[in-house]
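Practice problem: predict the structure.
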Amino acid sequence: KNNEWVYCQLHMKSQQGTKFITQEDSASKSPDHSQKDLYEAIQRGEYPKWTIEVQTMTPKEAEELWEKQRM
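Answer:
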């Protein structure tokens, strides 16, 4: 807008949720377990989805936030 630049941050949030494998469980799984799981889900028609949110801030807003939060 008006050829002024802004800071831009993208937030990508998985709609599938987040799952973790414990170190103990990882011993019984192959190194490519997550990749294989994704591949098999796609084969079943369960495509991954994300919610994308865009956050923008002018340099002045960033400076004010910096001062307010003492970053």
